[in-house]
Amino acid sequence: MPLIPNVRLLALAALLLGAAALLLGWREGRRYERSASERAVVFASLGARDAQALTEEAIRLYGAGQFPRACEKFGRAAADDPASAARRQDVIRCFEGWGWHALREGRPDEASLLFKHGLIETPDDPGLLKGLGVAAVHAGRPDDALAPLERAARAEYDPEVRLLLAHLHDRRDNPAQAVVNLRAVLEREPSNESARRLLEKVEREWRAEAGFRREITPRFVVKYRDTLDAEARREIVTQLEAAAARVTRMLAYTPQQRTTVVLYEHHEFRDVTRVHAWATGLFDGKIRLPVGRVRPPATELERLVVHEYAHAAIHDLARGRAPRWLHEGLAQVLEGATSDPILRAPSGLTLAGVEALAGDQDPLRARAGYNIALWIVRDLLDRGGGMESLRELLARLGAGESIAEAMPRVYGLRLTELESQWRRILGG
Fold first, then answer.
1. Which one-letter DSSP state was computed for residue 295?
2. 163 CB neighbour count, 10 Å cutoff
3. How far is residue 263's CA from residue 229's CA, in Å, rounded to a whole number?
4. What are the beta bridge partners of residue 382?
5. Which of 301, 171, 286 is nearest to 234 (CA)?
6. pTM for the complete prediction?
7. pLDDT tens digit string along 268-296?
8. pLDDT reported for residue 194
């Protein structure tokens, strides 16, 4: 996620302080010789007219996306008409809109500063609190999102806030609070499928993991049954730490939070994850691994653990916005998989088609999707810039750009041009 230079933040802070001064009614250089009552009448009359003109100009600027000037005008209008609660709200809403605009453009730190500025005047405003929480998530600080989102949820009902809180609590391994938020949504909206599916998932995992023990390492929280062989657990933890070191070295990135790893018996893994019978692991915000009495060969376990930890790092770097083909292709690269030298792709190859193949229920079609995804990611790595360019692609996706927007900025070719080249090379 790109950071804002300190100079820019200082300049923005100066602007905010200036707007705050206007909002509070501080006006320099005014001198009045009339009595207090005369001044009040004249000021009210002139101030209201000035405020209306400033507000109209501010609305025009806001509509044109000129947020700094619009908020400055709204602030002056509020200072000219200090008795008007509506004009003060105009200022607050302007900074809220500016904050969401900064967030959409991939500047979460700037957005946080803008939302916080609005909260100085209205500390319990649910829109600003929601924005502050979402900005923290986009900045890779999910723990900082909880407090403002919980305050927003108490202020008013917002299903998006409740669902985001449920996801955050689920990832923090706090199913009880996740369930509270999801039930709050379903009480108001019984037909909300997103809330219902997530509730079923969280409750299924909660039941399966009752009584699990925990081992906390610098990078992981490992959950397991006390019946799991101690030697097997130690081997898996060792492999996890080695996987984290390998992915960090190759990708030059590591998740900012500990990654939760849940070790299930084979039947528990199937019951909880509901994945294909051929799946040997899963990352869905947590790494989930089936562990039997017969341990797989060390090399097989190593590849599996690297692959799943790679998903955790990719997810974190792209803020959950990386498409499946990119996830699976890059995870295979990081685990050390090699491309099929005689690979052929279906005619009309597109990334949307690869995405659909990789998620297909049929194992042969899914395997084909994985193979093509691996080939495409290796091709991107060979185009110049290597892993650094691929990291930039992930960061741009994390900032909110689409694949179609990010590809030409990173690789210099439109997505349609890349797809055309891949079709020619793969014989489609």
1. P
2. 19
3. 11
4. none
5. 301
6. 0.77
7. 888 888 887 778 889 999 999 998 776 77
8. 96
